[in-house]
Amino acid sequence: MQIYLDHSATTPMRAEAIATMHRILTSEWGNPSSIHQWGERASTALEQARFQVAALINANPDAIAFTSGGTEANNQAIIGVTNLYITPQHLVISSVEHSSIEVPARWLESRGWQVTRLPVDRAGRIDPQDLAAAIRPNTVLVSIIYGQSEVGTIQPIAELAAICQQYRVYFHTDAVQAAGRVAIDVRALGIDLLSISSHKLYGPQGTGALYIRPELELVPLLAGGGQEMGWRSGTQAVPQIAGFGIAAELASEELTTENHRLIGLRDRLFDLLADCPILIPTGDRLHRLAHHLSFCLHLPDCHATANITGKTIVRQLNLAGIGISSGAACASGKLTPSPILLAMGYTQTEAVRGIRLTLGKGTTVEDIDWTAMALKQILARQIPQLACV
């Protein structure tokens, strides 16, 4: 039995996206910047996708710039705004951002920028009043993740964006995990910049988008041909973008019913694992992505030094045919604590014991029940004295 529960890492491409990409690759493969019929067919496909992605977040299609993915979109937002300034200013992010926000922020710090990292509570959520208190006269940008990939917590985006509007500060949100999973209206929310990734919503890998509020200035990361209204030069990957477009359209159509189904499955798995004292849920149970579960392995003092980490459980479940992920990163063979769990107040030891299970369109009740049984058996083998009831 094979069960894939790592949909926050990537999702399988849906059949409609594959069919759309095949059509582009075989009959609409021209350069969209060319004015002959081959280019016009590609350009039509490109613009259709722009409308489809824009509709997902209720944006003007002209405000959508296609990128190579969420990482580029995040970098374009951060660097694109900050490069408007000759002298270093002030930037606000959260302490639970994706590395594609945190690393550019550190790069800016090395060049004299001031960066404030807002704290989060034990559930990984920001207090909007902390943002209001952090804004300074020279604050030019606030970037807060919409839905945290590791612990599933959804931030109070409407309140945060409203504070930025009040102080006339640009507001960006990394919505890579949220777009297609949460109903988003950039106009109603007052968002200036928003990042999306195709492969998180059943589209192809290698493409994404940055929403840029009309009339907002940005310095492009790439210069050259002036594609994407001058925001992102380079010939567009039309097949991937077209696949992204249809995936975005279908995600929007299915969002309400699919979220309802996923919440039911998610809560069923939470309930099935509730009698497991080793598993401590992480993140916010109320303000949470519909498809997302996360836990920290809690070992009592007598087992505190046991060599059991989140990756231990990932490997064991993989042997059982179940794919999940660990919250801790592994670089060069060295296990490092999760910066997200550390920011939420977990200890160094606890922060290498995180696991994440993320459900998707193909997840069934049978998958949930089998996963709960397999995980309990694995934990019982690792520490027999703590076997789940």
What is the correct CATH architecture of the largest domain? 3-Layer(aba) Sandwich
What number of structural domains do the residues give?
Answer: 2
What form results from the Cα inertia axes?
globular
CATH class of the largest domain: Alpha Beta
Low-confidence stretches: 328-333
Q: Roughly what percent helix? A: 25-40%
The name of the CATH superfamily of the largest domain reads Type I PLP-dependent aspartate aminotransferase-like (Major domain)
Alpha-beta content class: alpha/beta
CATH topology of the largest domain: Aspartate Aminotransferase, domain 2
Helices and strands in order, then pairings?
Layout lengths: L2 E2 L10 H13 L9 H20 L7 E4 L2 H13 L7 E5 L4 H11 L4 E5 L9 H7 L4 E5 L13 H11 L2 E5 L11 H4 L3 E5 L10 E5 L25 H35 L6 E3 L10 E6 L12 H10 L2 E2 L1 E2 L2 E3 L2 E3 L2 H5 L10 E5 L6 H18 L7
Helix pairs in contact: 1-8, 2-8, 3-4, 8-11
Structure description:
The structure is a single chain. With 389 residues, the protein is of the alpha/beta class. It is 38% helix and 15% strand. The chain has a seven-stranded mixed sheet, with helices on both faces. Strands 9-10-15-12 form a four-stranded antiparallel sheet, with helices on one face. The chain starts with a strand and ends in a 7-residue tail after the last helix.
Task: Describe, in short, the structure shown.
By secondary structure, this protein is α/β, with parallel strands linked by helices. It has helices at 15-27, 37-56, 70-82, 99-109, 128-134, 157-167, 186-189, 238-272, 310-319, 339-343, 365-382; strands spanning 3-4, 64-67, 90-94, 114-118, 139-143, 170-174, 193-197, 208-212, 279-281, 292-297, 322-323, 325-326, 329-331, 334-336, 354-358. The protein has a 7-stranded mixed sheet, with helices on both faces. Strands 9-10-15-12 form a 4-stranded antiparallel sheet, covered by helices on one side. Strands 1-11 form a two-stranded parallel ribbon.
